[in-house]
Each structure stands twice: as structure tokens, then as C-alpha cells.
Amino acid sequence: MKVSVFNMAGKEVNSVDLPASIFEAKINRDLMHQALVRQLANARLGTHKAQGRSEVSRTGAKAYRQKGTGNARHGSKRAPIFVGGGVAHGPLPRKYIKQMPRKMRRAALRSALSAKAENEAIVLVDELSLDGPKTRDMKAFVQAVAADGSTLVLLPGRDDNVEKSTRNLSDVKALHANYLNVRDLLGYDKIVMPLAALDVIASFLGEVEDEDFEEVEESGEEA
User: Fold this and answer.
1) What percent of the chain has pLDDT over 70?
2) At what angle do helices 102-118 and 29-42 cross, to 10 degrees?
3) Which residue among 44, 57, 80, 137 has its CA within the 20 to 30 Å range from the CA of 159?
């Protein structure tokens, strides 16, 4: 697949062929969904906690005598039916971590990149550099190369000027190419990357081993 390469002013300066193994892979929506669910689940802290009747700070004395009041029998104000009492079957700390083989995770990334390439949502630039952290300059660059819509800017490495320049732009995010993930790929309309970032992606997604994920098993085992 041949795509145009632009400069920071938005003018076409060259064209390159995207690696077919990465940007022309079979689009597997089930696999992308599984990778996205895993990523969202692993981001959960799982620190939720409710106090049970044995943990609330209330008196343990019997509320009133057993007989003769006409009320139901109760032994403690810590019971869940009372205001201020413990919570019955409340949430407890737990881990939401889901496992997924590396081959499947990388296949999901190829599938997401292929979907973006099919929709002509990938924009290549020859280089991306700013003299200083300037939100105005970054906004002008994004509008020149990606027009409207949210934009994910992939960087080959750390670039403080570019990263700081995107912080005040609500619809633009800068991300290192090594941290490429399905959530960000699917969450932005356009993917903008310099040629150096494309090389980084090709370095860990370019080698495709014999694999078949047409049918994703619920167990998450390798095919």
C-alpha cells in the first residue's frame, strides 16, 4: 500500500510503501475486541472495598430487650438492615487482570493498523520536530496534516517539545511508538507518525510467524 509523505506544512514531499504484513493484514474484529477488553480490565485498580457488619464502628450491645417490645428480634445495630450498619455482600479488593498471548496481542495491533490504513486514516510525515513547547505550533501542524478529528501522534522516542505541546489539545495525544496499543488506535480518528516511528513499529510488528486467529477461543490459548 503506497501512501503520501507530508512535511510539517502539510505539503506532499514523497511517497512510501507501507509494510503489507502490518498494514494489509486480515482485519479480525473479535481479536481487536478481546485485546481492548483485556487492556481496559488491566487498567482497573480493583481497590473497591465496603465494610461488613464485623468492620463498622458501632456498638455491639443489643439494641433493646428480646421480648415485650413488639419489634423484631435484633442483636446488633451493625446489621445491614440498619442505617450505618455493615454492607451485605459488598465489593472486596480483587484483581481484574486478563491474560493474552503476545502473538494474539500483536496480531490485534496489526488488525487495528490495517483497519486504519483501509480507511485512509494514517498520515506519514518526513519528520516531526519543534523548537520549543508551543501549543499553537502543534495545533497548526495537526490541522495541516490531519485536518479535523481527533489525532494520535506516534513518536519514535522521547520528545519533550512535542509531548508538552499536545497537553493542552484535548483531541490530540502524543504516544511513543513502543507503547502502541489497541485502545489508542481505535480511539482516535487519525494516526500521524513520522517515518522514524514507522521504523519502530516495523521492528516489533514486522516479523509475522505462522498464526491463525480467525476463531478466537474464550480461553485465550495460542492457536
Assistant:
1) 92
2) 120
3) 44
Sign of CA dihedral 204, 206, 210, 216: positive
Phi/psi of residue 205, each to 5°?
-115, -5
Closest CA to 23 of 100, 96, 91, 121: 121
Ranges in the chain, pLDDT < 50:
210-211, 213-223
Q: For residues 13 and 4, what is the distance between their CA atoms, to the nearest angstrom?
A: 8
Q: How far apart are CA 18 and CA 105, in angstroms?
A: 20
pLDDT at 149: 85
Task: Quote the radius of gyration of the chain (alpha carbons, Å).
Answer: 27
Contact 56, 90 (CB under 8 A): no
Within the chain, what is the greatest distance between any pair of CA atoms? 93
| Contact predicate 39/156, CB 8 Å | no
So what's the pLDDT on residue 208? Answer: 61
Q: Say whether pTM exceeds 0.85.
A: no
* Residue 141 φ then ψ, to 5°: -65, -45
Distance CA 50, CA 117 (A): 47
Delineate the domains of the chain, giving CATH numbers in brackets: 2-43+98-205 (3.40.1370.10), 48-95 (no CATH)
d(CA 31, CA 142): 30
C-alpha cell of residue 33: 475486541
- Strand ranges, E, within the chain: 2-6, 12-17, 122-125, 151-155, 172-176, 190-194
